[in-house]
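Spend some time on the protein that follows and explain the fold to me:
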Amino acid sequence: MPNAPVRRAALESLVAVTFRHIVTATRNRDRITGKAAGLPTAQLRLLAIARREPGICLSACAARLNLDVSTVSTLVRALGAARIVRTVTDPSDRRRKLLYPRPAAAKYRAPLNHVHAEPLRMLLRHLTATELRSLHRGLAAVAQRNSLRQTSSTRTTRASAFPRRMPASGGAVR
């Protein structure tokens, strides 16, 4: 099996390039979505978390968004001033604030849903059915192995699974 390491290196390189394309497409989607909704991208991402997990604390939001808590607090203040979200003091720990979407948040759902899958659709549109099936099998295997690894480790968190910034060497995402 002398070719196995070479194939693995080629695959790792291909995954890195593909990942950069997905990140770029997602950032472009976020910019378009933000313009359509009339809110900055960071606020839309925070709002999506608040809708998915009502009652989430600000530090958990910061971890999911990979931002500082102070930045999330600023975003929450802006969304609160626009009456899109509200915060409630946690009854079990008065130092913590819990985030809830207000009814006005519903109007931002349509712009998010409309363009959510578009970047991936654009990246996958040229693949044949066989290529799509192969990609599906490969990604399913990666996801399954990754989820098994994460559930066996109690210290792995969603935020720690991704670096704060991409390394400057190699293929930095811009």
Confidence is low (pLDDT under 50) at residues 153-174. The radius of gyration is 19 Å.
